[in-house]
Design goal:
The protein is 46% helix and 11% strand. With 245 residues, it is α+β, with helices and mostly antiparallel strands. The chain has 2 domains: 3-168 and 228-239, NADH Oxidase, CATH 3.40.109.10; 176-209. Strands 1-2-4-3 form a 4-stranded antiparallel sheet, sandwiched between helices. Helix 2 (24-35) crosses helix 6 (102-125).
């Protein structure tokens, strides 16, 4: 155990922020930390849009299902998977990009995830809090138009940043023995282990909500994964030049 691991293990989603502004120099530093993350074949396929305009913030809040902190957080960033810049690189060398491959979609999206995690950990190391906003994909076409995103660019998620005005408990994660397998995928003991883990998640929710929410992890997953999951995404991504091959 060291300070880095302790910081990683203490991550919480922060949804309430103080009014203290975050200096632009700090935001620039966080983006640079994001850029230092691993990137597949050096494609560097993440673009960050810092949204300052209050009207755009209000619309993004609507797109994300009315999550108030999207409009209230001192900083709101939208992280995009961006192959347009790589297309430009090809054009600069008199070459035509062979785009639309599913592999390109995967590598660009993974790049965004790695970038975001670096950025978030860096933010937390400076005393900031953050929460990811996947809800912007509820109305992803509207978000893309609002941010004037070209083809071959799509918004993956947003991040609210600011100085925390709350101190929530750390949400318990799945036991390592469920996640870490040796040599092959063996889940023979997972059901029993998850049943035990469910108790800790239920206790967490009851404590966090003062008894208003009592749900296990498996109940949460079974409630979520038996419903449609943004069925508009496939058509949107194809329209943007992804998942064509």
């Amino acid at each position: 155990m060291n300070q880095v691991i302790e910081l990683l293990n203490s991550h919480r989603s922060i949804r309430k922020f103080t009014y203290q502004p975050v200096a632009q120099e700090i935001i620039n530093t966080l983006v640079q930390a994001g850029q230092a993350a691993a990137t597949s074949s050096f494609i560097q396929a993440c673009t960050v849009i810092q949204v300052n305009d209050s009207n755009k913030r209000s619309q993004l809040m609507e797109c994300s299902g009315g999550q108030a902190y999207v409009g209230e957080a001192p900083v709101f960033l939208v992280l995009c998977a961006d192959m347009q810049r790589n297309k430009l690189a090809c054009e600069m060398n008199d070459a035509e990009i062979n785009s639309g491959y599913t592999e390109q979609f995967i590598t660009a999206t993974v790049d965004v995830g790695l970038f975001a995690q670096n950025l978030t950990v860096a933010a937390e190391s400076l005393g900031l809090g953050a929460v990811y906003i996947g809800g912007i994909r509820n109305q992803i076409a509207r978000v893309a138009d609002l941010l004037e995103l070209p083809d071959m660019v799509y918004p993956v998620f947003g991040i609210c940043l600011g100085y925390p005005d709350q101190n929530p408990e750390v949400k318990p994660r799945l036991p390592v023995e469920v996640v870490l397998k040796q040599d092959s995928y063996n889940d023979s003991n997972d059901q029993q282990t998850i049943a035990e883990y469910d108790k800790s998640v239920s206790d967490y929710y009851r404590t966090r909500t003062g008894g208003n929410k009592d749900m296990t992890w498996s109940e949460q997953m079974s409630g979520m994964l038996t419903k449609e999951a943004r069925p508009h995404m496939k058509a949107f991504l194809k329209d943007r030049g992804f998942l064509l091959k």
